[in-house]
Model the fold of this input.
Amino acid sequence: MAPPSPHPLAPYGWDEGWEAGFADHAERGRVPGRVVRVDRGQCDVVTGDGVVRADTAFVTPHDPLRVVCTGDWVAVDAHGSPRYVRACLPRRTAFVRSTSSKRSEGQILAANADHAVVALSLAVELDLGRVERFLALAWESGARPVVVLTKADLVPDPAVLAYLAEDVGRSAPGVPVLTVSAHAGEGVEELAGLLGRGTAVLLGASGAGKSTLANALVGEDVMDVRATRDMDGKGRHTTTTRNLLTLPGGGVLIDTPGLRGVGLWDASTGVGRVFSEIEEIARGCRFHDCAHADEPGCAVLAAVDGGELPPRRLDSYRKLVRENRRIVAKSDARVRAGLRQDWKRRRAEGRAAWRAKRGDRP
Done:
């Protein structure tokens, strides 16, 4: 007896779990599909019969985190013109950033990704703080992050290249760091093997070489590529939408536009993963709510003084923790109250110090 033929959507990540979640929609005569591109209320969905254009009018909620996104698995009308997306299956992972530090809105960039590939160009000076920010969001999404240092051919000295990779690795505990030259084809096969047959989302700033890397992974020129500026290594936005591409060895890749701003969005768990060594050291602090600023008995400050922890790491940790608390406070009254209490305490301490300096008696 011949084995059953694979599902036509298997190359896009369809599995038994998705099929079980789709059972109710199948009974209603709908067909499954995966969103490969979204554009102004319309989306391209790959189904067992090919790619169809579908309207998202029935699944456009007020919550921006629930809108249809590239990578979503959806239930689509089997027939009709136009065809409509009737429902989205619950997401396994979601990469979300804040749209602005002054607003309490999140923006979902990709859904159901197994790996988050953070691309960094070696054509410019590495910004380790930006690396940590990307990784915090990647860990929070539920995907496994991978850091890729692109344009490795611009660093001909292997010793220097290895040092740069190690430097990034110290800011990315537990995360693979690969050096890749898409033009020379170096490191591409290793990256493809690491990603496996799942879904990967490609992230990074404009000019990081994401489109070139995507073309190398896909094996053909599917994404437009333009040269970066020599003065600062930055490029123009060649990718303006999020696109889902199939890989020849199995799996899919979601390519995203260059990100100028990477604001955190309720990423406390992700921040903890990125700075795991600080959170481990902090267990030795005298106070459980130690801010690692000037508290007595702070194990983290002692680690900095002893050379065990780089001061830059602690500064970056403090910055991301503060930013994340501000974002969460906009939608959580308890966090807002805590921030207000901290502000009042610091203000009282400042006044007391000022009075002491003047010699005033209490």
